[in-house]
Task: structure prediction
Amino acid sequence: MQMRKKYAVSALLLLTLCGCGADPAAQEAKSLDLFAMDTYMNLKAYGSHADAALKASADRITELEKLLSVTDAGSEIYAANHADGAAVGISPDTETVLDMAAKVYAESRGALNIAMYPVLQAWGFTTGAYQVPDGEQIAALLAETDFLQVTVRDSKLTVPAGMQIDLGALAKGYAGECVMECMRENGVKSAIISLGGNVQAIGSKPDGSAWKVGITNPFLPDENLGILQVTDSAVITSGNYERYFEGDDGQRYWHILDPADGFPADNGIVSATVIGANGLYCDALSTALFVEGADRAAAHWRAAQDFQAVLVTEDARILITAGIQDGFENLTEMPVEVIAP
Ligand code: AMP
Ligand code: MG
Result:
């Protein structure tokens, strides 16, 4: 599997205008494709304000990429990672993402830990030069991943010398959230976007029916395992099929690491989809639930009560939280089990 440069500079901007009939403005989608934050994105908006909203959204994504990228030497994250422990001024955008990282770090008891970056580097997930690091190397690097040492005070971020952070687990969710805001500011009432498979929707379809969002089958990633009906929601997935390599031992090693041992999280979950009102929160959660595994994820859901989830286990069961039972259609033979409150 080929690895693209993390958060590659927005390369491709393709504006596709679909349709312009008699009174079509309210019904026909304007669509924009772009490549940013290391992923392909598609934005679709309906109504007479769609063009302006799409343009504003693309500009906003480019702006966020420049702030949040871990590889762009001009970004705030890069500056903090390379400041030898000095405090670095950050924008409200970066602070919002860091606040969410801290909230979900606490709620997941460290399953989401944005300070895992040096360990991700050792595995080659940041460059594509994949390798299985030896245990001693991982242990040494893990000693430098205490997220609680990373601080934000007076809009200044401090990453201690020897540590590095990366927002790959939640930056796209924040970008989606900002796109939703651009759409609303421009008067769009119906829109749906996909940022590398993570979906966020405004309102419902122009005909008033719910959006139908496919959830990837982690065992057959070209197919959907189910369809979710949503309005005004984010649907965000973390999966073991998204970025991985095969080791000499024939084993698959994927890009979401368990901060407990520095190895790819292997707690019985192969994909975790989170559904909720806020894309930033859902993105942080999708990574956290993936690491937590089914039992901890269920406990997390019961404690938080402000999101829903679809978990797929390695032994091919679909676990859905009680709040989305009615909106989920299973397209597979896999059994569905409901996680009760
Ligand atoms: P996502 O697809 O949203 O689950 O994000 C996965 C990305 O988050 C990876 O490519 C890494 O950059 C980063 N990452 C991996 N493991 C963790 C972790 N335990 N906590 C926070 N970020 C992680
Ligand atoms: Mg995530």
Notes: The radius of gyration is 20 Å. The helical segments are 50-68, 76-81, 92-107, 117-123, 135-142, 171-185, 279-304. The first strand starts at residue 13 and ends at 17.
